[in-house]
Design brief:
There is one protein chain. This protein is α/β, with parallel strands linked by helices. It has 15 helices and 22 strands. The protein is globular, with a radius of gyration of 22 Å.
C-alpha cells in the first residue's frame, strides 16, 4: 500500500482552517504550521485561555463567522498534526524549514499549501518612528489578545476599511479616539463603486461604521495629506498634523495607529521560487497563481490574503479550493469528483471577492505620491534608520535605480521586518527619484530567515 502523501498547511487563519478541513475529509492527516499560539489567524485571533469575552464583543458583526472557524478547527484537532508557536522561516526544494521552541526542523512535503495571510501596508510619515506609532494590526492584537487599547487619546491615519473598523473597535472598547484621517478621495470613482457593490451588504456595513464614529464624536477627514507626527524622544507622540480640505489641522494625541489597507505575506512563496506578477491597481507585486491556487512551482499552492487580499470570506473559499486542487493533483481517491462538484461555486465566490477587492483598491488607493514628497530627513526604514534622502542619494550618486541595488548600498529592508513595512514605500521613493514606474524598480527579494531566529536555535535534525 502506498503511504499517504505528506501535505503541509502554513497558517491557521480562515484559509488554513478550510484547507485543513478539506484534507481531513479526504482521509489525509495534514501538518498545520501556525505562528500563533492558537488558531484563527489575525482577523479571527482568539483571546488567551482564561479570558471570557463574548464573540459579539470580540468580533462584532463577524462573530458568527469567527465562531464557526474556531469550532470547525477544534473539531479537526484529533485528525491533524497541529504545531502552534511554530515559525516557517525558509523554504527550499520540497522542504519546509520551521522552528519551534528554539528547535529547528526540516519538513519534506508532497504538497505545501501556503495560507500565510497579510500584514499592514505602511506609508512613512515624518515622525512615524516615534514611540506611540503602531500599525492597525497591532491595535487589533492588543484588543483581542491583551484586552487593552494602546494610548489614551488616539488618532488613526491611513486608508481602507480596516481603518474605520479598528477605530470603531477602539470606541467600543472605551478608548478615546480623537480623529480618523483618511488619505482616500472623498468621492470614489464609478469603477470603485461598481466593485464595492459586488458585496452591497459589506459596503453598507462600512457606511454604518462611519455613521457610528461620527455619532461618537470622532473627527473624520477624507483627502488628508499627512505632514508630520510631532513629539520627542522622551515622551513619544504628541500630535498629528495633516492638510485636508479644512486646511492644515493639528490633532493632539499620545498614540497613532497607521495602515493603508494590507500587503500579502508572500515571503515563503518568494523563497519557493514562485513567479510574481505586478498588480497595477494596488501597485504591488503578488505571487502568481491559477484559479485553483496552484503557483508556478509544482506542489506549492497559495490561498487567502497571502496571494490576493480577498478578505476572510474569500480566504475560506480559496483555502478549500487549493486543498481540493492539491488532492486532485496527488490523485487521491474521490478528489477529482469532489473538485468537479465544488469548484464552480468556489470560483463564483472568488470572482465576487475579486471584484470587491478591486473596488476597495480604487476607493482607498495607496498614496504613492506621498512617498515622492517625503522630506529627506523622514525615516523610511525604521529598523535600520534609513531616510528618504539616503534612498534618493542611492539613485543620484550610485545609479541605484533598482530596489535591491539600493538595498545593497543603504541597508533598507535588511532589518528585523525584512522590508515588510518599508519595502513598498522605498520602491516608490526610488521610482520617483529615478523617473521610472514602480514596477520597473522591482521588489525587495526575500532572504531567509523571513523573521528573526533566536541566537540559540538548535540545528535541525535530518528531514522528518
Amino acid at each position: 500500500m502506498n503511504a499517504a502523501p505528506r501535505i503541509i498547511v502554513v497558517g491557521a487563519g480562515p484559509a488554513g482552517v478550510r484547507a485543513a478541513q478539506a484534507l481531513v475529509e479526504a482521509g489525509i492527516r495534514p501538518i498545520i504550521i501556525d505562528e500563533g499560539q492558537r488558531s484563527g489567524g489575525q482577523i479571527y485571533r482568539r483571546q488567551p485561555e482564561g479570558f471570557t469575552r463574548s464573540y459579539a464583543k470580540l468580533y462584532g458583526s463577524e462573530a458568527g463567522k469567527a465562531e464557526s472557524v474556531h469550532h470547525d478547527f477544534d473539531a479537526l484537532r484529533e485528525h491533524i498534526d497541529y504545531r502552534p508557536d511554530t515559525l516557517a522561516w525558509n523554504l527550499s526544494a520540497g522542504v519546509l524549514h520551521v522552528v519551534q521552541d528554539g528547535r529547528a526542523a526540516n519538513l519534506p512535503f508532497d504538497a505545501l499549501l501556503i495560507c500565510s495571510g497579510a500584514t499592514d501596508r505602511l506609508m512613512p510619515v515624518h515622525g512615524w518612528n516615534r514611540s506611540g506609532c503602531y500599525s492597525l494590526g497591532a491595535s487589533q492584537i492588543a484588543l483581542k489578545a491583551q484586552a487593552c487599547a494602546i494610548g489614551s487619546q488616539v488618532v488613526f491615519m491611513g486608508s481602507g476599511p480596516l481603518l474605520y473598523l479598528v477605530a470603531s473597535q477602539y470606541v467600543a472598547a472605551g478608548a478615546k479616539v480623537i480623529a480618523v484621517l483618511d488619505t482616500a478621495p472623498k468621492r470614489p470613482s464609478l469603477a470603485a463603486l461598481r466593485g464595492l457593490f459586488a458585496r452591497p451588504q459589506l459596503a453598507l456595513r462600512g457606511l454604518g461604521l462611519i455613521h457610528d464614529l461620527r455619532k461618537a464624536g470622532v473627527v473624520l477627514r477624507k483627502e488628508a495629506v499627512p505632514l508630520r507626527i510631532e513629539g520627542d524622544a522622551d515622551t513619544g507622540v504628541s500630535a498629528v498634523v495633516v492638510r485636508s480640505p479644512h486646511g492644515e489641522e493639528r490633532f493632539a494625541c499620545d498614540a497613532v495607529g497607521m495602515g493603508w489597507h494590507l500587503r500579502s505575506e508572500s515571503q515563503l512563496a518568494d523563497l519557493g521560487r514562485c513567479e510574481f506578477v505586478f498588480d497595477q491597481v494596488s501597485r504591488q507585486w503578488l505571487p502568481m497563481a491559477d484559479a485553483d491556487g496552484r503557483s508556478s512551482v509544482p506542489g506549492i499552492y497559495l490561498a487567502g490574503d497571502g496571494v490576493r487580499i480577498l478578505g476572510a470570506d474569500g480566504a475560506e473559499a480559496a483555502g478549500r479550493l487549493a486543498a481540493l486542487a492539491a488532492l486532485t493533483d496527488l490523485d487521491i481517491a474521490g478528489a477529482r469528483t469532489r473538485y468537479q462538484f465544488e469548484a464552480p461555486s468556489l470560483h463564483a465566490t472568488l470572482r465576487v471577492m475579486a471584484r470587491f477587492r478591486e473596488g476597495l483598491a480604487r476607493a482607498f488607493p495607496w498614496p504613492h505620491q506621498h512617498a515622492a514628497q517625503l522630506p529627506d530627513d523622514t525615516v523610511v526604514c525604521r529598523c535600520e534608520v534609513i531616510t528618504a534622502g539616503e534612498l534618493r542619494s542611492c539613485v543620484s550618486d550610485k545609479d541605484a535605480h533598482e530596489v535591491n541595488r539600493a538595498k545593497a548600498f543603504s541597508r533598507v529592508g535588511m532589518g528585523r521586518c525584512q522590508g515588510r513595512y518599508c519595502g513598498h514605500a522605498s520602491a516608490e521613493i526610488i521610482a520617483a527619484a529615478s523617473g521610472l514606474s514602480v514596477e520597473a524598480v522591482g521588489r525587495i527579494r526575500t532572504q531567509a530567515p523571513v523573521k528573526p531566529l533566536q541566537m540559540d536555535t538548535l540545528e535541525a535534525e535530518p528531514n522528518r
